[in-house]
Write a structure and sequence with these properties.
This protein is an alpha/beta fold and 369 residues long. It is built from 15 helices and twelve strands. Helix 5 runs parallel beside helix 15 and helix 14 crosses helix 15. The chain binds flavin mononucleotide and the ligand CCCCCCC(=O)C(=O)O. Pfam families: FMN_dh (PF01070).
């Protein structure tokens, strides 16, 4: 049972001055099952911690005596205008955080001129989320062994207004989040995964041997897919394809050669522990792609200076995983909106203090790695 129906008082949300404050509110609103699912990383959680540490280690080289009386944070992703280069990463099961689930996240993305990435494993059907997002959503695909089912999800996403397909490539198997194994994470009975399975099918997955999701995913996901199969995926949808989970120059080159955009990510430290942090992987990927594709990044983004550093080094936009979930748990749509607003405000101030009035002024010279 989640505790969100106690509702974070509006005052507490208004008093939050940064994302850490919202995280504290969000964590307090969740029961152990949900909290451990959201917060956990794989194994010893080195990569989870390193995602934050890498941002902190990088130092800024600000320029001064620049007219920053007006700072413009606006940009676009694949032609979609955004109020700032901050979007929402896909995460499964928003219903664990709030009764409005993905609808609240989609409404917040729309209200803040952002973009939401909807997980294959949402608690809300694609069509419902599409209506709330009003064109401000991308659809994330986990390729199922049942290709016809996967194909049907792509058709539904496109019909619902998705602007891009985010194809997750770092999870043929789920990473081992040990706390979820130890406490046998399971979806509460009132939540389902309507894009993928009936509630009954989920309820029947055994949890005696550990996490319900890990057990379910093992049988469901296609593990045979290779670069050669991208041609098949390309034929299934006219949407732009973004490969999420790229961490090396070698794979970034292949992505660009296959006409795909690149999402630099280690899945928030939930897959391969001790994998490189997303931020440290970014420079070699930007070099390798050499402008052929858009590049996005997620993993540990919680400060306006994180956004600035990633964009300065070549990311078109950054995406929030857990930070959006903490906002959702704290106060539904309002909580996600507040998260986006606080981060955008921090980013604007960081730009001003770096002497950058426009996104184009953010260059690698601002960052010392
Ligand atoms: C609870 C949770 C569920 C997630 N579910 C998905 C998912 O369904 N599909 C996917 O591609 N990535 C998923 N991710 C990974 C995120 O998209 C993103 O890569 C990661 O959370 C970014 O790191 P951050 O949480 O530090 O911002 C999930 C992450 C979390 C924390
Ligand atoms: C059987 C549902 C699996 C959902 C996996 C979501 C995910 O990517 C995560 O990191 O958790």
């Amino acid at each position: 049972m989640t505790l969100h129906n106690l509702n974070t008082p509006g005052d507490a949300l208004r008093d939050a001055v940064n994302l850490a404050d919202i995280e504290a509110l969000g964590r307090a609103a969740l029961d152990r099952n949900a909290l451990e699912y959201y917060a956990s990383g794989a194994n010893d959680e080195h990569t989870l911690r390193e995602n934050r540490a890498a941002f902190t280690r990088a130092r800024l080289r600000p320029r001064v005596l620049v007219d920053v009386s007006g700072v413009d944070t606006r940009t676009s992703v694949l032609g979609l205008p955004l109020s700032s280069p901050i979007g929402i990463a896909p995460s499964a099961f928003h219903g664990l955080a709030h009764p409005d689930a993905e609808r609240a996240t989609a409404r917040a993305a729309h209200a803040r001129d952002s973009v939401m990435t909807l997980s294959t494993f949402s608690n809300t059907p694609i069509e419902t989320v599409g209506a709330d997002a009003q064109g401000r959503f991308w659809f994330q695909l986990y390729l199922l062994r049942d290709r016809a089912h996967s194909r049907a999800m792509l058709d539904r996403a496109q019909a619902a207004g998705a602007r891009a397909l985010v194809f997750t490539v770092d999870a043929p198997y789920l990473g081992r989040r040990e706390v979820n194994e130890r406490h046998r994470f399971a979806l509460p009975a009132h939540l389902g995964a309507p894009n993928v399975a009936s509630r009954d099918a989920l309820a029947q997955v055994e949890t005696d041997s550990g996490s319900q999701l890990a057990n379910y995913f093992r049988d469901l996901a296609d593990k045979t897919f290779t670069w050669h199969d991208l041609a098949w995926l390309r034929e299934q949808t006219p949407l732009p394809i973004i490969l999420k989970g790229i961490l090396t120059a070698e794979d970034a080159v292949l992505a660009a050669e296959h006409g795909c955009h690149v999402w630099v990510s280690n899945h928030g430290g939930r897959q391969l522990d001790t994998a490189i942090s997303s931020f440290e992987a970014l420079p070699e990927i930007v070099d390798a792609v050499a402008g052929r594709s858009e590049i996005y990044l997620d993993g540990g983004v919680t400060r306006g200076t994180d956004v600035l550093k990633a964009v300065a080094l070549g990311a078109r936009a950054v995406f929030l995983g857990r930070a959006a979930l903490w906002g959702l748990a704290a106060a539904g749509q309002n909580g996600v909106e507040r998260t986006l607003t606080l981060l955008e405000d921090e980013f604007r101030l960081a730009m001003a203090l770096c002497g950058a009035a426009r996104i184009e002024h953010l260059t690698p010279a601002l960052v010392r790695l």
